[in-house]
């Protein structure tokens, strides 16, 4: 029971880390390619 909860929390941490890394990569890609064409985060 407790072991399952620990595994679930570890999976959640890993998922959040992956999500942060993906968003960072997307922002860097936007800065590289689309920064001079259109502003970042327009309309969001």
Can I get a quick summary?
This is 4764_t:CDS:1. The chain has 44 residues and is mainly α. The chain contains 1 helix and no strands.
- End-to-end Cα distance: 41 Å
Strand/helix succession: H
Radius of gyration: 17 Å
Average predicted local confidence, pLDDT:
80
Helix content class: over 70%
Q: Could you list the spans in which at least 5 consecutive residues all have pLDDT below 50? A: none
Number of strand elements: 0
For the sheet with most strands, the description reads: none
Q: How would you sum up the global shape? A: rod-shaped
| Beta-strand percent range | under 5%
Count helical runs.
1
Q: What structural class results from the helix and strand content? A: mainly alpha
Describe the oligomeric state of these chains in a short phrase.
single chain
Topology diagram in text:
Layout: H1 2-33
Notes on the protein architecture:
There is one protein chain. With 44 residues, the chain is mainly α. Helix content is 73%, strand content 0%.
List keywords for this structure.
1 helix, 0% strand, 4764_t:CDS:1, 44 residues, mainly alpha, single chain
């Amino acid at each position: 029971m407790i072991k399952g909860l620990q595994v679930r929390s570890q999976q959640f941490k890993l998922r959040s880390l992956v999500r942060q890394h993906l968003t960072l990569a997307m922002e860097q890609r936007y800065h590289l390619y689309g920064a001079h064409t259109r502003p970042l985060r327009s309309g969001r």
